[in-house]
Amino acid sequence: MQVNLKGYKGSVKKAAAVLCNDPQRPRTSLTLQANVRTLIDVRPKDIVLFKGAANKVSEKTIELVGTSLTFHITKIDTNLEDRVALQLETVEDGKHYRLRLTNLLKHGKYGGFVRLHTDLAEKSDIMIHVDGFIEGET
Q1: How many structural domains compose the chain?
Q2: Range of the domain at 1
């Protein structure tokens, strides 16, 4: 049996049914509980929401912090070019980066992503989902 914990963080509990040829117990349950630590913490979370009047929507900040290995962000891809401005700052090289996101849209809605590529084979990219619901300026 293999358990895929990609995308999980913190306390995780997984259960699986096990079938066998034992007539006394042809079916049993196997439970795995673990505390999953990420290689890179994304704080506060990997989802950004812009909502409100265009001139009142504040900048959003994502902190990317290495928990055990050093890492570097090597490239950024996004499908939000005309809707969201991105600025990446190095807080502590190899350990801590800050991504600032600013809404550019004056009115309308959008959804998309920001993908940060890293030099860690175990965590080659970080996906940030971005949604905007912009009502226009007030």
Answers
A1: 2
A2: 1-36
